[in-house]
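Entry:
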Amino acid sequence: MKPYIIVNPIAGSIVDLNLRLRQLRPLNAREVRVTQRAGEAETLAREAARAGCDYVVAAGGDGTLNEVINGIATPSPPRGVCVGIVPLGTANDFARSIGMMGDVDTTIDIMQTKTTARIDLVRMTSERTRYFVNTSAGGFSGVVNEKLTPEIKLNWGPLAYLRSAAAALPQLHAYRTTVTFDDAESLVIDLYNVIVANGQFVAGGLPIAPQADPSDGLLDAVLIPKRSAAEMALLAAEMLLGKHLSSDAVIFRRAKKISVQSQPGMWFNADGELVGNEPIVFQVLPGALDFVINKR
């Protein structure tokens, strides 16, 4: 397989684009395309899949990977297309979950071995249908993403998410939310946040779903109910350590399907990119993606 490589030239860790392109040469690519605008990676990935390309590599961050996955998964999940990632973004959260966080040359070596695994794809349906592999978050996280401008990412780097969270704090409020798991158990509760995870990390390495396994056929749901300021401060510290799932301040569930409705409506993101408002349904598609991983 010769990869079709899609490069995001404004990914967070790219300072010298020509240097990065030279580093990709050992992959002996079928084609290398550098995107010029938002959304182009999705278009290019779709065109590559339709042209019969069986190996598509996203060279960028979580947003670039999300576009590539949606390109090959729309209108239906892919068959016979292998996906790889060279993590060049600000956060690279899904790459952390699959052990792809070495330097670029090390990553290239892994890509050349083409060691693959079947991982789960998540379909989210609201105003439109989108797919993701890492996480989706609604509520306060949606407000944070509205504040996370390209300029903040550029200027603040790995601290961009904390900077945006601080800017969003004045808008923190609870949502009266109904969450249904596998069309069976339903919770009606005041929530600050709903996180639906396939991977473990968000915001540049925060272990929001430390037990998540992107190949177990299940979604990890982390619900953050309305709490006092003191409780939220303690919870934030526990999250940094990945110890929050045992806390009474969160609700944790696993399911194959999760439905969310709230008042007021929550905005949700997919792998950090804003998607749409609720009501929303998340459905896991077990083993739908063939993904290059680090065989550890």
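The CA atoms of residues 147 and 164 lie 5 Å apart.
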